[in-house]
Structures are given as C-alpha cells and as structure tokens.
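One example copied in:
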Amino acid sequence: MTNNKSTGSHHRIAVIAGDGIGLEVTPAAIRVLDTIGARHGLSFDWEETGWGTEHYFKHGRMMPTDAIDRLRPYDAIFLGAVGHPDVPDAETLWGLLIPIRRSFDQYINLRPVETLPGVRSFLRDDTDIDLVIVRENAEGEYSSIGGRIYSGQPEESAYQQAVFTRRGVDRVTRYAADLSMTRTRALTSATKSNGIIHTMPFWDEVVSDVMRDYPQIALTSVLIDALAAKLVMHPERFDVIVASNLFGDILSDLAAAAVGSIGIAPSANLNPERRHPSMFEPVHGSAPDIAGKGVANPIGQIWAGSMMLDHLGHTNAAAELKAAFRTVLSSGISTPDLGGSATTDEVTAAIISAVSTPANIA
C-alpha cells in the first residue's frame, strides 16, 4: 500500500452528516475521534458540507454541481447517512453516494462483521464471527445503463444493463486476496453462474485467473443463494468474502444483522491507491423512525471512524478506538437497538471515558 497524501498528524476531513440519525451519530463520532486523536498527537479539521436532503429541498440537488471538485483536496470523507421519507431513495443514492464513489474510484467497499461483547446475536450464543466482505463498488449490477419505455401502456418495460469488466473484477479480487493473506488465507467468492449466464461465469473466470497468483489461498466459489443460507447457519466458517456490487450489498447487511444490529456495522469506500479521498460511513442509513429521539446507536459511525484512522496510517489509534467501544459494550452500556437503555450521548460519553483512560480498555 502506498502512503496517503497526508502522512502527518493533521488531516482535513470533509463531513457529510446528511440526514436523520446521521445528524446525531456523526458529531458523536467526531467527539470520540478528537479525543483519541489528542491522545495520539493527531488533529483534524472537520469541515461540514451541509449536503443531503435539506440541500435537495432548497436547491433540487443532493449536493452542488461542483461538489466533487470541492471534495477532492480532502484527506477523507466522513459520511453519516442520507435519506428522507419524502425523497426517493434513487435520488439520494444517485445524487450523492454513487457520484462520490465513482468520481473518486472508490472501487472497494470494505465491510467487517464481528461478534461484539455485550451484543446478543440472533444466532447461537456461542457463535464467534469475524469476517470481512469485500464488495466491488464501482460497476456490476449498479449500472446507470438502461431505461424505461412505453410508459403507462400495457407494454411498459424497464431494463438495466449490468457491467462487469476484467479490470473491475481483477482488482477487487486482488484486494480481497491480499487481505486474505493477512488473515486465514481462506477466500470465498459469491457467484450465481448457474443462473446468470454471461456476467457470473465471467466473474468466476476472472476470479480464477487472479487466484493463480495466490496459490497459498484456498478459494471457494459459492452460489449466492446457498451462501446467504450458510452465512445464517454457519457464519463462523467464513473469513474473507469477495462479491459483486449487488451481492456484496445484500450479504453485508445480512451478516451485520445476524450478529445483532446493523447499527454497529461500518463500511469504507476505498480508493486503495490513495489517488483520491476515500469515504467512511456506517451501514445503518438515516433511520427516520428514531431520528431526533437521542437513541441512535453511534457505534457504526465510530467504527467507521476507526477504519478511517487505519486508512490514514494511524493503526495504533484505530485499534485503541475499536478496543474502547468493545470495552463499553462489554460493560453493558448500549442503545435500545442492542437491548440497552442508554442514549446516544451516554454511549458516546462512555467511549470517550474509555479512550481517555486506556489502562481500563480490555
């Protein structure tokens, strides 16, 4: 991995708190990151953009026309959540998230899924899960090629073209394989080559070609329907999973929910070569049903902050932050989605306290 363009102790971070609980968990995570940063001699300029659905209501766009150019100089982007009941999801996704991911070639979506102390899994109590889903993030099924015809007529039709390139499949597979080399050297590839006749056999072929360069890794290709079932029945058997854009999206939410709550799940949208800023966000979305109640779980956003620290080269601070929220959860302090009664602020304060007294971190 090459060095990030900002190798020092000071970083400029663009903040898109966005909507719903994003406006609550993002400032909470920033307070935690400022605390851990101070302990490790790091400082951050957090520069809020104000983009999201409020911007859409005022300007008819999720972000300004020059948003990408304005984001380009930052070391990273810290995203809370976007989404509003009165705005179609396609507008929020294609008006903000996907343009950022693709303009900055954030072709890796990295989603760790782990059993956390104090978090009751929906599976067996003795299930110990520690896996990573490497999702292709720039092409595949999430293509803008397509359209609708004969609107309002009996013949009305919609079509969408999935796009898989050799370069795209090659590079996501290599990233997953390199990651697997640092773990158990067991890699699972999600496929559906028995039913999707063109793109999935192509995916399998390219994955197989890449893996010839990694003879130390045991590769298993599993059909997506069987893989989803196995992730529910035996998630502890998996380590690194590489998947297309759609399959990775579904599997990562399924796995996160299985360990207790998508409120604890983080993700990183990475440009591994670090030519462009990467973006870090929780998986949970804007959750309008609990927005403003002060009970949103900040762990997903804080964990995303830990991933950001790691990406920026501060591995010790990242590990310490992760250990801190694990300690807090193990003490029984959690938000209602995990069965607790603590507020967002109370969980945040407990993590800040743990970060401030690292000798107490388990």
